[in-house]
């Protein structure tokens, strides 16, 4: 994905294509690899009818059933841990320490982001650290195969069908390539954006670049109601924006806590 550029205004029009996904007759979902190839053919026909380009349809047809993605989707046990257990498993103390160092060394970047979006450094650094260990663990799963597999899988087919249409739109626009790689559920870049979020909240440039990814993350939070100067702990106004980032309650609370500690409030994350 390195080197691509786009502006948010130029991709808003793609929302109409993504939204049309629900109007199509849904391809038959399945719970094993056995029906994936037939599903691809049916979905490809639907995608053509929705105006997806031949190049994007070809990319879709080149996807393979992502067994590792299905295993990861079924095995998200860490989200059932207590907050203390979750922080220990995810390295909360290390994220706080590294986040505090980056807040100092990249002070001008985080000051500019806060001025533009109203989001302080703490939650941005908490998300960056939690998602990819500050860019060191961005995943090696084929993005298009992961999203296609989850769109086919019956467990969350509707959600990932929207994501797949968004991914195909990104392919159409040259933003995503058939060989792009990321995490198990199709997340991309330093802070792990899903395809639909790239369309809606990306601010330009490759999300493998930390500055671009952090700006897009701040834009996501602002778009979900972040108010400059308001608190972001549970029960405070900006916690809802963190909830929009990830649906898991323990993750939300961890981001709020780690962010507060990075911003200089409270002790180092407990183990």
From TrEMBL:
The keyword Nucleotide-binding does not apply. Residues 1-23 form the signal peptide. Keywords: Signal. Residues 36-232 form the Transglycosylase SLT domain. It comes from the Bacteria. InterPro entries: Lysozyme-like_dom_sf, MltB-like, SLT_2. Coiled coil: none annotated. This is Murein transglycosylase. The lineage of its organism: Bacteria, Pseudomonadati, Pseudomonadota, Alphaproteobacteria, Hyphomicrobiales.
